[in-house]
Amino acid sequence: MEEKKFEPIKKVSIIVSRGSLDGVYPGLIMANGARMEGIEATLFFTFFGLDAIINKRMDKIKVATVGNPGMHMPTILGAIPGMSAFATWMMKKEMEKLDIPPVREFIEMCADAGVEIYACKASVDMFHLTKDDFCPQVKDIISVGKFYELSAGAQIIFT
Asked: Rounded to two decimals, what is the model's pTM?
């Protein structure tokens, strides 16, 4: 049987649509990892994923405890006041042990490594945001059409 040869990945476009720690970090880790491997990377933040690049919110990203099957607890426990804050504290503590930086620092690292960072125009308009609401690493606010144009030849990853 002949062995298949695969083309190496040269470019990835990662869509981040959730604003919880478990929604934001996979995209950041994948984008940073891509750059470390010499792969071009684009991050496209949409819907609640925008929280990761909004100056006033990016330092306050939390773990969602209600309705999150990954928490392995009944929904009623996740709804207890303070549970989300406690889960967030625990996860951040574990991430610190692994040298995983806070969201703001990780965004800066990704941008410094050459990751292009964009905000979704439809979501920005829907939430009545402007370019001034975002961290300086956001290159532009773009439409989905422009995202696809920039992603030509890329593997598109939805986290």
From this structure: 0.86
